[in-house]
Amino acid sequence: MKFFIDTANLQEIKEAHALGVLDGVTTNPSLMAKEGITGKNNIMSHYKAICDLVDGDVSAEVIATDFEGIVREGEELIEIDDKIVVKVPMIQDGVKALKYFSGKGIRTNCTLIFTAGQALLAAKAGATYVSPFVGRLDDISTDGIALIEQILTIYRVYGYETQVLAASIRHPMHIIQCAELGADVMTGPLSAILALLKHPLTDSGLEKFLADYKKGNS
Ligand code: G3P
Question: Does pTM top 0.70 for this prediction?
């Protein structure tokens, strides 16, 4: 399972990368705004700074919602770095753009996926990744993990190569549940990744080991 971090914060990306388990980064316009990155030039340079920090794919989202605009922005974004994956929203012109990009060998991440039907369309259009939003479905009392299972089933039945990128991951149980199902990738905050390593028995066990060592070696 690939681990992507869902942030535009360079410090968090560095920390996740230093842990040695980071496979890529996803961003979105809200995450860029949260870091105070505004204006096209600043946004493009920030994507470059992210690409320079990591070894894997970096999803950069288009703002345009019409076919020509999405294609224009996507073609500009891929010029930044070979790691860039063009993030395209699940809208009618977005599906057309996914098909266009796929024909040109340009990698894409279809975002804002909330149903299996949307994921099926994105796969048919040749998306490299689909991003079903697990946490946002849970937020409205709908089972986000069940959607991951449904999409994986459909993709396996037809052999689609589109990778399921479980997005809007909020906590470690989301990661475990996605891993059990075989999601290709998860993207979440650093806090969810770091929460995987925590257990009170690990902490108390280590405390005792160190205390016993100290007793025998003082
Ligand atoms: O980047 C897309 C997705 O991961 C957003 O997550 O936490 O804003 O629902 P969240």
Answer: yes
Candidate list 34, 48, 87, 208, residue with the active-site label: 87
Q: Distance between CA atoms of 48 and 135, rounded to whole angstroms?
A: 28
Atom of ligand 1 nearest to the CA of 59: 1
In sequence order, what are the residues at sequence separation of 6 or more whose Cβ sits closer than 8 angstroms to the Cβ of residue 180?
A: none
Tell me the per-residue pLDDT of 11-37, one tens digit each, with 9 for 90 and over: 999 999 999 999 999 999 999 999 999
Dihedral sign (CA 129, 135, 139, 143): positive
pLDDT digits (tens, 9 = 90+) for 39-98: 999 999 999 999 999 999 999 999 999 999 999 999 999 999 999 999 999 999 999 999
Residue 69 Cβ contacting ligand 1 at under 6 Å? no
The string of DSSP codes covering 58-91 is EEEE----SHHHHHHHHHHHHHH-TTEEEEEESS
The residue whose C-alpha atom lies closest to atom 3 belonging to ligand 1 is 168
- The domains located in the chain, with CATH, are 2-216 (3.20.20.70)
Q: Is the CB of 135 inside a 6 Å radius of any atom of ligand 1?
A: yes
Residue nearest to atom 9 of ligand 1 (CA): 168
Is the pLDDT assigned to residue 218 strictly greater than 90? no
Catalytic residue check, 104: no
